[in-house]
Design goal:
The chain is globular and about 45 Å long. Strand 2 and strand 3 form a beta hairpin. 32% of the residues lie in helices and 31% in strands. The chain has a seven-stranded mixed β-sheet with strand order 1-2-3-4-5-7-6, with helices on both faces. It is an alpha+beta fold and 189 residues long. The chain contains five helices and seven strands; from the N terminus they run βααβββαβαββα. The termini are far apart.
Length: 189
């Protein structure tokens, strides 16, 4: 794990990010998309997150991208501006090597630095033994809801699990006026 490094994602990573996500869509149940999005669509999603100032990280080893994670808006309404939803995907050959943990630790730190207050995980196929549920539990996320039978993929019904991690004082203190979400909100007014 020590030779795996984290860095900010760039548009040069999008081919590999698109491959990793395509595998997750095609073979997994973490994403409820049924068809892998094109490289063009993945680029548009990336550009949207970058324009919003959201953190987007890749894990690499020997110059190859092993996985990626990002935080994006949880919901578009302005009152949700302090809440982000995390996403993390690891290449099939890198699973079980701690890549997801490193990515999520980096993402949590980036979300803290930006001044967000809550990170929400929306986990497809949220079985208690799923790798994503276990990873989020390990990082201190608490269970905050379950939507039973909310997705249908690969011939079976899937539950969606919501998990939540308060950061930067969560809801216990007022927002920081210098935080990224507050600065963006003031610019939009």
């Amino acid at each position: 794990m020590s030779s795996i490094t984290l860095r900010a994602a760039t548009s040069a990573d999008l081919d590999r990010i698109t491959e990793i996500y395509a595998d997750a869509v095609t073979n997994g149940t973490a994403s409820y998309e049924l068809e892998p999005p094109s490289r063009t669509e993945m680029g548009a999603r990336f550009d949207n997150l970058m324009a919003g100032g959201f953190p987007y990280l890749v894990a690499e080893k020997a110059g190859g991208v092993l996985g990626y994670a990002y935080a994006g808006a949880f919901r578009p309404r302005p009152a949700y501006r302090f809440v982000v939803e995390d996403s993390v995907y690891v290449a099939p050959e890198a699973k079980g090597q701690g890549v997801g943990l490193l990515l999520m630790q980096g993402l949590i730190e980036a979300a803290k630095a930006a001044g967000f207050r809550q990170i929400i995980a929306v986990i497809g196929d949220g079985r208690p033994d799923s790798a994503s549920v276990r990873l989020h539990e390990k990082l201190g996320f608490r269970h905050s809801g379950r939507l039973e039978g909310s997705g249908y993929k690969h011939g079976r019904w899937l539950d969606t699990v919501f998990m939540q991690l308060p950061i930067n004082g969560g809801a216990s203190i007022p927002p920081d006026p210098q935080s990224l979400p507050e600065r963006k909100f003031r610019q939009q007014k």
